[in-house]
Amino acid sequence: MKQIKRIATYTFLSIASLVSIFPFLWMIVSMTNKSVDVTKGRLLPGTHLVENIKVLFETVDIVTALINSGIIAIITTFLTLLIASLAGYGFEMYRSRGKDIVFNILLLSMMIPFAAIMIPLYQLFGNITHTFPGIGIDTLAAAILPTITTAFFIFFFRQNTKMFSKELVEAGRIDGLSELGIFFRIYVPTMKTTYAAAAIIAFMNSWNNYLWPLVILQSPEKRTIPLLISNLGSGYSPDFGVIMTAIVIATLPTAIVFFIMQRHFVAGMMGSVKG
Fold this sequence. Notes:
Elements: H1 2-30, H2 35-40, H3 49-59, H4 62-93, H5 99-108, H6 114-128, H7 140-144, H8 151-161, H9 166-174, H10 179-190, H11 192-207, H12 211-216, H13 225-232, H14 240-260, H15 262-274
Helix pairs in contact: 3-14, 4-8, 4-11, 8-15, 9-10, 11-15, 13-14
């Protein structure tokens, strides 16, 4: 009976894994085929990989788009980790009569869709464009600032901070460390798995962000990789082989980041659940 149950379990998991990975396999196979073969649903590798790559780099400036996306994703991830971890640490470690009210208001902000605040944000950056042109419309800074942290990341760090030993904080204070010294020299190294999990989520969210960059970035040279791929597919007769090649190239950075930090990601997510 146990053996039958085990076979059924592994069969189900194998089918589920195949269904999950099939779109990625099809995407990789499609980048080696002509556009007409992709539309026909060809599942065998072709011989047009080099040609698709050549056409892609000749048609659009994908290198600049990758650099723009990289700059936005790296800066956003760094600022997200810094601000959200400071906020989560403060909410959990320090006692205040109104902190739970503020925290609940932050959680309520998660219910507001980004589309509802997109127009006010655009007006805000439009009003400061002349005063602060470096962070106005059509700048990478404008694409970064509204996304540097969210209530989710603050909640995530607060939940993980529940597992952080309060004795370490007291020991740091006895040793004469300042509050920031305790945070950077004790808390940050101890919570590295939490930072790794949050870094992966923040990097992927920023790298794949489409709506806000579409609204705020207007120059072709400021275009990010999701905008470039969208532009490739908006033509009268899109070349699906080239589009699939661009998608695979755009997927590589996030895949590399995830596989490098995969072990820490699992540990960090489990820690948040236990918290």
